[in-house]
Amino acid sequence: MHPTIIPFALATLILSVCTVKKSKVENVGYVLVIVGLLFYVFSFLADDFTLKEVFLHSSKNLPTIFKLSASWSGSGGFIVWWMSAFAGLSLLKRDRSIYHNLTVVALFIVATLNGAFDSIESVQNGLGLNPLLKNVWMLLHPPASFLSYAFGLFVAIDAVLNDVKISKVGFAWITVTLANVLGGVWSYYTLGWGGYWAWDPVETALLLPWLSLTAYFHSKDRSLLYLTGFSVTFAGFVTRGGISPLHGFAINPSGFAIVLVGIPFLILFFKEFRLKLEAKPMNIATNSLVGMYLVCITALIYQLAFKSEVSVDYYNFANLPFLLILLSILPICNSKEYGKYLKALIVVYAISAILTVLTAFKFITWCPYAPLYVNCAVSLILPVALFSVSSIIGLKRFEHRLIHLSISLLIVAVSVSWPYAFYETSDAYKVKVGEEVGNIIKLKIDGVNFSISKSKVVYQSGNKVVEVPEEGREIVYMDLNGREVTAVISVYPARFLNYINCMHICQMTGFCAMCREFYPVLSDPIIVSEGLNNYYIVVDEYTQSCYMPKNCFALAFKSVLPVVNETKFLEFLNVTCKSYTTQLGETEFIVKVKFVPLINLLWLSCATMVIGEIVARWRK
């Protein structure tokens, strides 16, 4: 074990003793957790590669800000931050209980099992941070996640103690909302596929505490806070359990231990929760949210049990009835007189039915790339969502109007944008330097430049160990509708052989999370906004012929030669890449353009939702 475990171990010992005999010494235990976190982070900032998490996720020349984010990028490191955030909240609470102490102890054990404090022999450099994690969103999304996990456990324990404060529940809801939204923003602006939500297991698991907390606001049933406590541990388990095709980072076999922390809350939920079938708006809203929760967790359990992916169509259409009910009831949640509203709602559903029939007969098409049944679903839901938007204006309290309005607008934006983001195949152009292409979007490549980073990382193959450049960049200078922009294509040589080995194992069948993690070339998208819509542009680094920019390929090839047989390497390229050098000229690129409507309305709605809850907390 690494010495950084010492303050955490002492804290665990003190808090364990205090669970048996109440003592003010427990304050020392919580302070020691915070001190331990400082030492843990310092190990990353000081390049202490004897801590295995530092070796796996950092390197000497990694920028300081990313060394900080590297401290929570690993499975164990993330749990250390989660434990420390919970300890910090507990330290601020005057009347703590043994449950707070036991939670810190349990998280310490889970962090240890997940390798947070494992040590290795002294080495000169680390493997470096995963390229997909070298991003500003890495500084925002994971902290929001472990803060939401900490708040989720905190309000669940408050429910056990019958000491629920709506302000704490509100802060928990804000952090969970931010974690979900920032994850969507990250995938949209980084991954290069134009999407923000794909019902990936990690996304879906993080949605669970949002649903349970939102249901609590409508019912004030404390059993839903127990469910929140279980949900955050389940989300941590899914994230670190390796079942996600898009989040294949920091997987640890001991990830299952996280969910054990939440089992007591799940037991309490089943003991106390009672489904109320009263036809009251707040009760109907609660039941619709609980229904969506059941849809999501059922699919996640199925995927865990049978190691099989669940179709996005299941999530979309199984949740659709509950979503329609929620949209229908949102405008009258706090109202006692709603006779006229119900009559107007019947008319709206009649309009939805007519639009759905017209769509089924192909008189209306919302997204030409999406299947017919998806277009029909949009016709069904849009009139209800738009009516919900107009009706919400009548709510009395400003913060309620703001939150409910943002949810309805969010559904409008998702209904229109998601089919384009998920189904549309972008238009692709082969572009040479100096050539202009495109109709609506006019693109011209003015020039290309290449640079190699000074930072190096370790690559090891058998007994051979070499230091290679961490990154090479091909910068493509473009003219986009008269505006100068740059596209960045990055290559990571140390990951090249990992990628090749992984492709041999999975035989390139379908999407492989490890292939995505090891993939040596990444291209940052360019986002062009036009009002509420976006044009999403990627200067692609490959085609089906496995094209790789000449300079990037040369760097990767040169870097891996010390640890690979050149003949076998070229044989692999001939089989997999199909004569990459003859497919495109060295000054020719693939430019993909994708249209995503109302995406900016989606981000605006999410921001308004959070602002609404902040206003509510401030007014309280």
Please, could you describe this protein's structure?
The protein is of the alpha+beta class and 620 residues long. It has 23 helices and eleven strands. It has helices at residues 5-20, 26-45, 52-57, 64-70, 75-92, 98-113, 141-160, 166-190, 201-219, 223-241, 257-260, 263-272, 281-306, 312-329, 339-360, 372-392, 398-423, 496-506, 513-518, 550-560, 566-576, 580-583, 599-619, and strands spanning 427-432, 436-437, 443-452, 456-461, 464-469, 472-480, 483-491, 521-523, 526-530, 533-540, 588-596. The strands form three sheets. Strands 2-3-6-7-8 form a five-stranded antiparallel sheet. The chain has a four-stranded antiparallel sheet with strand order 1-11-10-9. Helix 1 runs antiparallel to helix 2, helix 5 (75-92) crosses helix 7 (141-160) and helix 9 (201-219) runs antiparallel to helix 10 (223-241). The longest helix is centred in the middle third of the chain and has 26 residues, at 281-306.
Short structural description:
The protein has helices at 5-20, 26-45, 52-57, 64-70, 75-92, 98-113, 141-160, 166-190, 201-219, 223-241, 257-260, 263-272, 281-306, 312-329, 339-360, 372-392, 398-423, 496-506, 513-518, 550-560, 566-576, 580-583, 599-619; strands spanning 427-432, 436-437, 443-452, 456-461, 464-469, 472-480, 483-491, 521-523, 526-530, 533-540, 588-596. It is of the alpha+beta class and 620 residues long.
Q: What is the overall shape? A: flat
- What is the chains' assembly state? single chain
Note poorly predicted spans: 503-516, 541-547, 572-585
Radius of gyration: 26 Å
How far apart are the termini?
47 Å
Summarize the main sheet. 5 strands, antiparallel
Q: Give helix % range.
A: 55-70%
- Please, what is the average pLDDT? 83
**Helix tally?**
23
Content of β-strand: 5-15%
Number of strands: 11
Structural class computed from helices and strand pairing: alpha+beta
Biggest sheet strand line-up: 2-3-6-7-8
